[in-house]
Design goal:
- The chain is built from eight helices and seven strands.
- The protein has 283 residues and is an alpha/beta fold.
């Protein structure tokens, strides 16, 4: 039995990276999927790969009109909307305060917050009537930077903290008709880009080699893939197991929140210690 049982899911930023992995997993779990993305080319590739159970809308998450159009396209194609997933975002490549150019900080702030925060707000505005009709849900992609420092610079970290507040406020305002929750992934190797206002629009996080350092930096010892992150969204979108979830944010970050002060992981030598314990028990 599939967990989404022909639900209809709308995903922003769903044509590549984590969004595309979520879309593919939703389809696997029995859903039909609508995607809003600014790349017409990537939307075409998505449609070719995933077929007629996907409808697409080219648009910018910073535009309420485009969010409204995505919801309208979804309703026209599938007749309903059960879950809206706000996922489109940009990263500031950990540009710290002193390195933010004084003549670009206003534009950079507006670009990061308009995509990472206002984009979520506008999706919620556009999708709420349809979700009230279906007693559906919203899910927003947060980040480890929504809880801890050093997951980005001040612009990105502040935007993700703001998204945490947005999840909680919307969960309050829309209860009991719409459940609002979030997923906070950790590091990921995708085509995530940076602000054009800082000259980072063509820079991809995939080129940073995050997976190479994950063994030493991430408590689980590896960098999860987009596909491995996608399951959390299925949990929040499904209607059976998550009934109590409202205003919840799942820290789904490879254990970044439990790193010790002196070392990343406390269990690094567990196999050796257990082997020594077993050896000590031998007659």
């Amino acid at each position: 039995m599939t967990r989404l049982n022909e639900q209809v899911i709308l995903i922003t930023g769903g044509a590549s990276g984590l969004g595309r992995a979520i879309a593919a997993r939703c389809l696997k779990e029995g859903a039909r999927v609508a995607v809003l993305d600014r790349s017409e080319q990537k939307l075409g590739e998505l449609k070719d790969a995933l077929g007629d159970s996907v409808t697409t809308t080219v648009g910018d998450v910073r535009s309420l009109a485009d969010n409204n159009r995505a919801v309208e396209d979804c309703l026209a194609a599938f007749g309903r909307l059960d879950c809206a997933i706000g996922n489109a975002g940009i990263w500031d490549y950990s540009t710290n305060l002193l390195d933010l150019p004084a003549d670009k900080i206003d534009r950079a702030f507006d670009e990061v917050f308009h995509i990472n925060v206002k984009g979520y707000l506008l999706l919620a505005k556009a999708a709420t009537p349809a979700l009230v009709d279906s007693r559906g849900s919203m899910i927003f992609t947060i980040s480890n930077a929504g809880f801890y420092p050093d997951g980005g610079g001040p612009l990105y970290t502040a935007s993700k903290h703001a998204a945490v507040g947005l999840v909680r406020q919307l969960a309050f305002e829309l209860a009991p008709f719409v459940r609002v929750n979030g997923v906070a992934p950790g590091g990921i190797t995708t085509d995530l880009r940076g602000p054009g206002s800082l000259g980072l629009a063509e820079r991809s996080i995939a080129n940073l080699g995050l997976a190479d350092s994950a063994k030493e930096r991430v408590p689980i010892g590896q960098l999860p893939t987009a596909d491995e992150y996608a399951g959390a969204y299925i949990f929040f979108a499904a209607r059976e197991d998550n009934v109590p979830a409202a205003g919840s944010i799942l820290n789904f970050d490879g254990g970044l929140g439990i790193r010790g002060l002196r070392q990343t992981m406390g269990g690094r030598d567990l196999p050796e210690r257990i082997a020594n314990m077993n050896k000590a028990k031998e007659p």
